[in-house]
TrEMBL record:
Keywords: Transferase. InterPro entries: Acyl_CoA_acyltransferase (IPR016181), GNAT_dom (IPR000182). The keyword Transferase applies. It comes from Blautia obeum. The lineage of its organism: Bacteria, Bacillati, Bacillota, Clostridia, Lachnospirales. The keyword DNA repair does not apply. One of its GO terms (molecular function) is acyltransferase activity, transferring groups other than amino-acyl groups. This is GNAT family N-acetyltransferase.
Amino acid sequence: MKLVNIADEGAKYKWQLYDLYDKAFPEQEKKPLHVMEKLVADGKMEMLAMVDEDEFAGLAINLIDAEQDRALLDYYAIAPEKRNSGYGSMGLEALLKKFKNHKYIFEIETQDEKAENAEERKRRKAFYLRNGLRETGLFVNVYDTDFEILTPDGELTFWEYVDFLREVMYEEYVQILRPTLIAMKKK
């Protein structure tokens, strides 16, 4: 599995990435493409096509703080025709390798038995834990959505998280996101 940046050598996968982004995420969770393209131009985001033998397999969109070696997986999706074939694990393995010297942050929806996608949330968390991520004990609300934060080493404070958002996002966007600490559980 190769990770190819659509801003340069992966340009031929740009429209497949945009199409999957449009279809894979709920409207309220998507950033406008013009905001994302500005973040890319400013070096604060990268859009990666996951490619297997020149075939588009999925996308990984990361927020990047290159100065402090920090990154956040903002969006991750496998193309519908490639799902349930190991591509999710292969892509995550490639990402963890790429960001092995970074503080790499993952936001997943909190576990909620009453949520209409409760089973999907449970599977998603199990997938990330099975593939090497660890719980930080940190639960936040961002943009009216409750998230649990995972990292490869299980270490992150709320203030490190907020500082990261402030560093990579424009202040007016951080004001819209309104990061709030919900809970900090001991591991």
